[in-house]
Specification:
Helices cover 48% and strands 13% of the residues. It is α+β, with helices and mostly antiparallel strands. It has a single domain, classed as Creatine Kinase, Chain A, domain 2 (2-Layer Sandwich). The strands form 3 sheets. Strands 1, 2, 3, 4, 5, 8 and 9 form a 7-stranded antiparallel β-sheet that branches. Strand 11 and strand 12 form a beta hairpin.
Length: 457
């Protein structure tokens, strides 16, 4: 199957702070400033008034990150004019009360999720979009089932059988891609964790995962604890019909919740499409992409490493026509290739055990370390030294067994924080300013990685 049109897209969410390191509701102000100074930079409002989302035109990870670093440098200068810092992590280390933007979309969610909606304003994520083959979606951006089709133009004419085979190949990319991303979720969340503190407390290496996903598997009463179908890590999929049924079920449930809260059912059709009503770590997006949205926001060099890793794993699966097979052997030798099969663990093992270990202990857990290492070997086995330059942070984590969350914890402890107690406001502010200033330094480091990649022959 042709890879010429394959692209990656990214979304980065950040907090706005003042020079003292306090969270401030300056998202609207900074977005207006950025749009005025640099209209080419794509920015949108998030649920919190203290949040900004950045996006770039999709391309390969290398080209897209060239745009990201350029845009972030400009955005930081625009923010500086208003004496605002951009904080690049998933959670703020201290305590604060989020203020929310007023929109019908967020008002509906707030009514349905109740007081827990506050949790959404405490968490920032990093999202990666992987393009799907053309033809999987119809003109209304909905998944379509295969059917016999012939063309009047002889050059395009396919027999019903050939058409079915061609479409089934595309369908398999969606199914296997979805299952690959689901199995890889604990790996990606481990490498990107940056949220050891939330509201001044240490909950886990990835506190955002507990707050945002919640649920029985994570043992935490989080944002989507009662609505796992909308925000939790879901099962593997076997057929496209299964996916369509899940989308319909999710849509009907959200519509019923809207009606329960006294809103008109017309709202769900007016303000979104059926694929909009999912905030799961892995989802199929109406833009025609597979979206991995379960990761913490982090510094650009870490985002570059994880995105390159994910891009190579996904493309290897497609190029080699691998079928992701959940099996017990996938627990012992995860991401091993046998013929045209890619061995992945059973979904219960991923959702019940690895997801939790990723959040709580991360890379320091021996089982989690091995799982991450196996995924890296699968993704990078057929790449060259040139591509590996972009994954510098990934290999650094494996070598040191330290993620950004671990670095934050170490720094906090050195500054006198008892991680079993609340982080003092003074230290929380200092940590926030320190890492906000690190953003500029990391952008420069990421640019050097990209330049080194570009100049390697």
């Amino acid at each position: 199957m042709s890879m010429k049109k394959f692209k990656l897209g990214f979304e980065l969410e950040m907090f706005t702070l003042n020079k003292k390191g306090e969270v401030v509701s300056k998202g609207d102000v900074i977005i207006k400033r950025i749009r005025k100074d640099h209209p080419e930079i794509w920015t949108v409002h998030e649920c919190g008034r203290h949040m900004i989302e950045f996006g770039v035109k999709p391309s390969t990870s290398f080209l897209t990150f060239k745009r990201i670093t350029n845009h972030l440098k400009k955005a930081m200068k625009s923010a500086e004019k208003n004496k605002v810092l951009l904080f690049p992590f998933a959670t703020y280390p201290g305590n604060f009360n989020p203020e929310f933007n007023d929109s019908i979309w967020y008002n509906v969610k707030q009514r349905i999720l109740g007081n827990k909606f506050k949790m959404a304003g405490l968490c920032n994520g990093y999202h990666v979009h992987l393009s799907l083959p053309s033809g999987v979606f119809n003109s209304k951006n909905m998944l379509r089932k295969s059917k016999n089709k012939t063309y009047k133009d002889p050059k395009k004419r396919l027999s019903g059988k050939n058409y079915q085979e061609k479409y089934k190949e595309k369908e398999s990319v969606l199914i296997n891609g979805h299952n690959l991303l689901t199995a890889a979720d604990p790996v990606l969340t481990t490498f990107m964790q940056s949220s050891p503190f939330i509201q001044g407390k240490h909950l886990a290496k990835d506190s955002r995962m507990l707050f945002y996903r919640g649920g029985k598997n994570l043992g935490f009463n989080g944002l989507y604890s009662k609505f796992q179908i909308f925000g939790g890590l879901q099962s593997y999929i076997e057929t496209l019909s299964d996916v369509i049924k899940l989308i319909e079920r999710r849509y009907d449930l959200w519509k019923s919740e809207i009606i329960k809260q006294g809103f008109s059912a017309d709202l769900i059709r007016k303000h979104g499409r059926k694929l909009d009503y999912a905030w799961n770590p892995v989802k199929i997006n109406k833009k025609g992409t597979l979206e991995q949205r379960g990761m913490d926001m982090n510094l650009p060099s870490y985002a570059l490493g994880v995105s390159t890793l994910l891009e190579n794993a996904y493309l290897r699966m497609r190029k080699e026509n691998l079928t992701a097979i959940p099996c017990d052997e996938g627990m012992k030798e995860p991401f091993k290739v046998k013929g045209n099969l890619l061995l992945i663990p059973p979904e219960n093992y991923v959702r019940n055990e690895l997801q939790y270990k990723s959040a709580i202990k991360g890379i320091e857990d021996p089982e989690m370390y091995n799982y991450c290492d196996c995924f890296v070997k699968f993704a990078m086995q057929r790449t060259n030294k040139k591509t590996k330059k972009l994954t510098f942070r990934i290999y650094e984590i494996l070598r040191t067994r330290k993620t950004v969350a671990d670095q934050l914890l170490d720094q906090a402890i050195q500054e006198g924080v008892n991680i079993n107690e609340k982080v003092p406001d003074k230290i929380a502010k200092h940590l926030a300013v320190h890492w906000s200033n690190k953003l500029k330094e990391d952008i420069q480091f990421t640019e050097r990685l990209l330049e080194s990649y570009k100049n390697t022959t």
